Recover the amino acids of this structure.
């Protein structure tokens, strides 16, 4: 089946959505910090016909209707937006449906499913539009250029400037004062199987380029398409018509049945294995530590995985709500620059959270679970060395891919792997943070911290044991010659238990009780180390 549109970005909605978000964020950042603005956020926002907003207006809500006058710019994000009044500045709108029946004094930048400029619409400068359907009806006037990207577009009315369009279906049915440059689909392409359901009538535009009898072009017509344009006899083109033939590639019929499952599984295995090798190379301790955590505490990892995924979703919504509320509060204080910064910060934080969760669920979680499963299959619970870990990872991922290919069982396996892998990463990260804090405290204690004597055997022993235990947990093994006794003290440097000190009973230790013999012991600085054992002067010769 031929592709619906040869325009690359129209077949990939995610890059187009990112570009639109960046454009809106840039518009927010460029708001002057010293300027005043009015912020409104309600379910239904209405600017009455006799109402005049003297400043810029920022609006969020379910339904936004502007019947009055906005003397500045209008920035709106809502479900439906209707402009019946006048916006003297720029219009920047993102909504499911955007209808302009009034006047925009400068540029109009709109994005949504259905975009409509009615018969009374007036846009003084450029129109930038992106969506499923873009329509300008007869009587609409655009004083500048038109730049659009959509599945279908019907351009009627009057356009004083040039038209640059990318669409699967484009129809010109009005007067255009400049050149037209279009990248369109083929006339023999199949129509879209989906169309948005809104309260605005969506016109039907045939695939390819069509010029109706009402089309009037004062410039040239240049278009790229797999087929010739359909030009009505009454259409008038003052300039040249240039058609660049585009070879419409046939979509190759993919394999079906077991072969399709085999190819899909092979692609998944190669993707995860390469990601796992990269993780073992760049983050060896993280991957190995998370695998060890999953082996020792699987149920805890499962619970923390569920909490992390649900908590991230809640955090994304909370950050967005806080950013909007903060922007509203700053707008009331006439701090438009800070309000814009708050919104941009919230959007960026949400993108970071979502991207981090997607990478953890799609790549890191299968790698951690695969390494754990491969080690268990090889009877090597903690493979040492890059080669053995890579082999264990390949074996575990092979089992995971085979289970994913089983009908009805594959989604369950994918969910369990995501929960276990994400939870193991979270638990290991928490343990690593606690061990790092314990090591820092021990290092400060050995360095002569406040309230700690360098020669205190009780504190030195506990600190040394804590450091040894932390290092053992990091590496998975204890140093040679040491037993796993967390409360073991430091090695003895003085006399053995059976050799009493001179002048002291055997049952007394040098550090217990006040000394009754010899001069008082002077305090030693921290850098001097431990005090040597006290020696008595030699006896004089008899």
């Amino acid at each position: 089946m031929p592709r619906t549109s040869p325009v690359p970005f129209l077949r990939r909605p995610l890059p187009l959505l990112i570009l639109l978000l960046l454009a809106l964020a840039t518009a927010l950042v460029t708001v002057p910090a010293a300027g005043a603005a009015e912020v409104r956020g309600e379910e239904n926002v209405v600017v009455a016909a006799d109402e005049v907003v003297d400043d810029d207006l920022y609006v969020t809500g379910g339904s936004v209707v502007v019947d009055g006058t906005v003397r500045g710019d209008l920035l709106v994000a809502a479900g439906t937006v209707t402009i019946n009044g006048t916006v003297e500045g720029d219009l920047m709108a993102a909504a499911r449906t955007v209808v302009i029946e009034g006047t925009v004094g400068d540029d109009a930048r709109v994005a949504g499913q259905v975009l409509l400029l009615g018969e009374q619409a007036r846009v003084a400068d450029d129109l930038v539009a992106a969506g499923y359907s873009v329509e300008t009806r007869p009587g609409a006037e655009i004083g500048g250029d038109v730049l659009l990207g959509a599945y279908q577009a019907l351009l009627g009315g009057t356009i004083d400037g040039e038209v640059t369009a990318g669409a699967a279906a484009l129809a010109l049915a009005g007067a255009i004062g400049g050149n037209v440059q279009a990248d369109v689909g083929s006339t023999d392409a199949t129509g879209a199987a989906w169309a948005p359901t809104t309260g605005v009538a969506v016109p039907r535009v045939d695939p390819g380029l069509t010029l109706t009898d009402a089309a009037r072009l004062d410039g040239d017509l240049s278009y790229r398409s797999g087929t010739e344009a359909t030009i009505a006899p009454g259409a008038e083109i003052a300039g040249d018509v240039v058609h660049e033939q585009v070879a419409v590639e046939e979509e190759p019929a993919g394999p079906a049945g077991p072969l399709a499952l085999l190819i899909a599984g092979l692609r998944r295995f190669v993707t995860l294995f390469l990601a796992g090798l990269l993780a073992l190379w760049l983050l060896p301790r993280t991957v190995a530590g998370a695998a060890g955590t999953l082996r020792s505490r699987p149920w805890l990892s499962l619970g923390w995985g569920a909490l992390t995924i649900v908590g991230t979703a809640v955090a994304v919504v909370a950050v967005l709500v806080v950013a909007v509320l903060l922007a509203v509060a700053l707008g009331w204080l006439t701090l438009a620059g800070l309000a814009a910064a708050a919104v941009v910060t919230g959007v960026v934080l949400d993108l970071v959270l979502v991207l981090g969760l997607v990478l953890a669920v799609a790549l890191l979680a299968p790698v951690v679970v695969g390494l754990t499963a491969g080690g268990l299959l090889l009877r090597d619970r903690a493979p040492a060395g890059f080669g053995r870990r890579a082999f264990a990872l390949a074996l575990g991922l092979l089992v995971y891919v085979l289970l994913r290919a089983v009908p009805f069982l594959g989604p369950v396996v994918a969910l369990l792997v995501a929960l276990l892998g994400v939870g193991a990463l979270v638990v290991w990260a928490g343990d690593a943070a606690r061990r790092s804090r314990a090591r820092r405290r021990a290092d400060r204690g050995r360095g002569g911290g406040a309230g700690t004597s360098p020669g205190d055997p009780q504190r030195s022993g506990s600190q040394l044991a804590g450091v040894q235990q932390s290092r053992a947990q990091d590496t998975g093994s204890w140093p040679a010659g040491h037993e796993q006794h967390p409360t073991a003290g430091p090695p003895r440097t003085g006399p053995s238990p059976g050799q009493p000190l001179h002048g002291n009973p055997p049952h007394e230790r040098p550090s217990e009780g006040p000394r009754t013999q010899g001069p008082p012991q002077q305090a030693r600085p921290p850098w001097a180390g431990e005090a040597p054992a006290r020696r008595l002067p030699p006896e004089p010769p008899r």
Observations:
- DSSP finds eight helices and 24 strands in the chain.
